[in-house]
Amino acid sequence: MTPADLSRTVLHAVRRAVDEDALRVAVPPRVRVERTRPGGSGEYACAVALQLAGPAELPAREVARILKERIAAEPGIGRVDITGPGFLCLTLDAGADGAARVALVREVAARGNEYGHGTALRGEAPLLTHAAEVRAAVTADAVAALLRSQGAAPRTAPTGPVDPAWSGLGVAATGTASGPATAGTDGRDGTAETIRPVPAGAAAADLLVRLGSDAARWGLLRAANHDRAALGDGLLVQSAGNPLFLVRYAHARAHAVTRAARALGVHEAPGPNGEPAAYDNAAYGEPAALALAALLADHPAVLLAAARHRAPDRLARHLEAVAHAFFDFHDACPPLPAGDEKPSAAHRSRPALAEATGTVLAGGLSLLGISAPKHL
């Protein structure tokens, strides 16, 4: 279950409480469910009881108690605890959540690099204007790609002369990457908006010579628009301390796991009922696998938020988190048998999660205009 699924679950419980006259409040249009912070109780937390306490004229913990029994009865919920002034802490049912992870792996496999793409912004056609400066141009290009991934039809337009060196960074050297280089609208587009990050302080040609296209784009996009971009030689260092290398190495390692599993004959072997054993949900129950699967499940929401907020840095940070979680999973739950170890059901299942990780990383890097080599 994703946070969006849990939000709907909690809302359903609120409606039940209202229908049963246990609560006398207006049902909110939405509630926020977030992952529990380290050291907290449960897997997810929700403050809806605090939100409803005033309108219900009840203490927040009493509202939480009313909702607790109804949320606990919902499919997929294993346990509900009340903490602090009235926070609801949710723990998922292992079996139901395992089925959700099976569905997640299948969905990523089916959609490939377009996993997470959607139509939430269909009908929007913004004109993204930007200064004739390299960071602004690259950021507008990445924002346009994110918008297209969510069904929008953006155009980009510089407000000054185009730098021919932009082409080396994936931005069109003449016109723009997403439409004619003209300001204004043609009646089909919404109000023009300006993409205005802190300037890079370097020219495109210099960045290409020093860093190359991939490292330069990562450096330009990784920082939030209001922060200065880090464009030092550390972007070229091949170590885990370089986030770009970490993400690309995780992608390459995920592909290596998939190749090795197929060579060993342990990837997608038939299960007891004819289903692919790679989708055996029992092997996804370890904490490291749960954490990785949760981040993969969050990917569609991250893409939509990055598009809506014109913030490619959100996607870059998400890819870093996925890469870290993948290596934790790889170390804690070895996807491949070691030495003469006999392959287990887990070894026939974990490569599918590794493959899904590689797919998500490749799709995310592609939206940032960065290559995802299978070998490093």
Word description of this protein:
The protein has 376 residues and is of the alpha/beta class. The chain has three domains: 3-92, Gyrase A, domain 2 (2-Layer Sandwich); 127-232; 239-367, Orthogonal Bundle (Isoleucyl-tRNA Synthetase, Domain 1), CATH 1.10.730.10. It is 48% helix and 8% strand. It has helices spanning 3-19, 48-56, 60-72, 94-111, 134-149, 204-222, 243-264, 287-308, 312-332, 345-367, and strands at 33-35, 44-46, 77-83, 87-92, 127-130, 155-158, 193-195. A four-stranded antiparallel sheet has the order 1-2-4-3. It has a three-stranded parallel sheet with strand order 6-5-7. Helix 5 (134-149) packs across helix 8. The two termini are 34 Å apart.
Which labels suit this protein?
alpha/beta; Gyrase A, domain 2; three-stranded parallel sheet
Furnish the topology, listing elements before pairings.
Blueprint (H helix, E strand, L loop, with lengths): L2 H17 L13 E3 L8 E3 L1 H9 L3 H13 L4 E7 L3 E6 L1 H18 L15 E4 L3 H16 L5 E4 L34 E3 L8 H19 L20 H22 L22 H22 L3 H21 L12 H23 L9
Parallel strand pairs: 5-6, 5-7
Antiparallel strand pairs: 1-2, 2-4, 3-4
Number of helices: 10
CATH architecture of the largest domain: Orthogonal Bundle
Biggest β-sheet strands, sense, barrel: 4 strands, antiparallel
* Average predicted confidence as pLDDT: 85
Query: Which shape, going by the Cα principal axes?
Result: globular
Strand order of the largest sheet: 1-2-4-3
Going by CATH, the homologous superfamily of the largest domain would be Isoleucyl-tRNA Synthetase, Domain 1
Distance between the termini: 34 Å
Strand content: 5-15%
Radius of gyration from CA coordinates? 23 Å
